[in-house]
């Protein structure tokens, strides 16, 4: 929304400048001694067109440079001794966009063509023609416009590089901190949880071997140990996951669905749309959404079937995971860590998440991740 409003304001500003320059050129032309002949009408049209062409400057600076240059030469040939103000604006925009060689070549051409245009307009004295051409496009103003555009371009480039460096530094520090946390968790918790898990399973095994009744507390300890080990592995895997070595993506989802199906849950995968490459972050997030959804179904939903649907759209990747578990429309889902993690990943990519019970029973997770095809990497 903010970017859209910014673009609208920028477009209004460009048109305001273009209309202002066109009006100035037209008023300057009207102030001269001109009649309503066909040649004079052409001159007025060129004055107006040269100014209005500036509205397209940010999108097509080279084209605007050519149009304003031709218009300046044209209305000089029509007998209008009007400064080439629109062309100076076009030089500034082209230099700011980085088209230095083209701008210099075009300016040399315009400077050479203006005296010829002045001669065509009826001036017989060559010196007077050169003087009129010089007044139409002062070299000092031309150099100033080009220098201003180049200076602003360099400043913007340095600002972009500084911003990119800050982002890379912040990302590197975050990766280092994440790996540090992963090591600390691994060193401090993995051993203790493994001891609890092994000892509780051994105690259950011994009790059953002796024919004794296993205490409920011991069974709860064993199940808690198993759950803690699974959660710790998932947490360490997520912490070690980074953008440089993504462990999983869209290509791994079929394997994930097949593996879940072997646990007794009937899981199906449907892929729709024309398959295309997506950014690594989108593919990684899609895998995590499907993984977390299927894990929750297997652990908590008491479901017999689950369906995964992936829809490749031109500007987005849509995911949907449904189950036929015990969730009902009148029961609100508890926002666990897994659901919160999914929401954070999707929000970071500018996407949307919907996780709620279905009207026919069961639970659904729907996500839409925007995909910029041209910038996918």
Could you explain how this protein is built, in words?
The model is unreliable at 1-6 and 373-377 (pLDDT under 50). The protein has a 5-stranded mixed β-sheet, covered by helices on one side. It is built from 11 helices and 5 strands; from the N terminus they run H-H-H-H-H-H-H-H-H-E-H-E-E-H-E-E. 65% of the residues lie in helices and 10% in strands. The chain has 377 residues and is of the alpha+beta class.
- Counting copies of identical and different chains, the oligomeric state is single chain
The spatial strand order of the largest sheet comes to 1-2-3-5-4
SSE run: HHHHHHHHHEHEEHEE
Distance between the termini: 25 Å
Shape: elongated
Q: Tell me the helix content.
A: 55-70%
User: Rg to the nearest angstrom?
Assistant: 35 Å
Total count of strands = 5
Report strand %. 5-15%
Q: Enumerate how many helices there are, as a single number.
A: 11
Give unreliable regions as ranges. 1-6, 373-377
Largest β sheet strand count, sense and barrel closure: 5 strands, mixed
- Broad structural category: alpha+beta
Average pLDDT, all residues: 77
Secondary structure elements and pairings:
Elements: H1 2-30, H2 38-52, H3 61-77, H4 85-96, H5 100-120, H6 126-136, H7 139-209, H8 216-240, H9 253-261, E1 266-273, H10 280-301, E2 305-312, E3 316-323, H11 337-348, E4 352-357, E5 363-370
Parallel strand pairs: 1-2
Antiparallel strand pairs: 2-3, 3-5, 4-5
Helix pairs in contact: 1-2, 2-3, 3-4, 3-5, 4-7, 5-6, 7-8, 9-10, 10-11
